[in-house]
Design goal:
Order of helices and strands: HEEEHEHEHEHHHHHHEEHEHEHH
CATH topology: Rossmann fold
CATH superfamily: Alpha/Beta hydrolase fold, catalytic domain
Distance between the termini: 48 Å
Number of strands: 10
Strand order of the largest sheet: 1-2-4-3-5-6-9-10
Amino acid sequence: MGPRSDREQRYRDAERRWWAHVGVEPMERRVHLPALDVDVRVQEVGVGEPVLFVHGGPNSGSTWMELVSRLSGLRCLVVDRPGTGLSDPLRRPVDRQNLAEYGETLAVDVLDALDVDRAHLVVSSFGGYVGIRSAAAHPQRFDRMVQMACPAFTPEMRTPPFMRLIMTPGLGALINRLPPNTTAARQVLRQIGHGASLDAGRISPEFIDWYVALQRDTDTMAHEVRMISGLGGPLGFDRAITIPDSVLAAVQAPTRFLWGADDTFGAEATARRTVAAMPHAEVEMLPEAGHLPWIDDPERAAKVVLAHLVG
């Protein structure tokens, strides 16, 4: 696969093409997370009230950039979770035993490293789990939250086929050794509900190229496959890690969900059930959108974020 420096340069080149396409040039810094004891990359765009973006998996922070490019008046703090993008991996991988603790720790750890007392949250998928756990455990650190689609491990969440394959003993390592390519990337996006946008040409080649480079030229997939395979089996994620209703009820931050109608992790009934368990939450269903709804309709996603966080 080539020396790490060569791979990192290829990834950065693809990332810069993606940034140029959406018209952003983030300021990049590396920070040490004191509680998790790991160095991560944070990209910063804009000025204003701080907003922490936490992505899902397997993914990295630059997945947010088309949305971030539309959020004037906000200080967007975009983290590569440990082990993804250009961040270092955790010394102890996330597993069933430490998942809840990690969910409660990550976002606060990033704010501490950046010397930010309080922030809004924009989160997705596994990042959505982090957002719920963090807001419930540390209400004094978070103002408002936008959840993009189905958070990981909510009650009634479904597991798409490619993730069940990753969690099948032996197959996860095999999948990680397969050479990433555009066709495979598009297939994964279809599996999580983005078929309509792919067919309509709403997902740009620059995004696909960056997504392939993330898998090919960073260690993201190896670390994420290890985490995912440790949280379940061929039938899906372990039900023991489902977010309890008591945690959902403890989230005091006013929360707005933008939920793709084609999200294969959870249909509208799952969205309504999740929101009903939270005291200050509401949901908007977005037609022809999947698990990453801002890549289907970045304009609508930006309007939702700005209306909820700025007013």
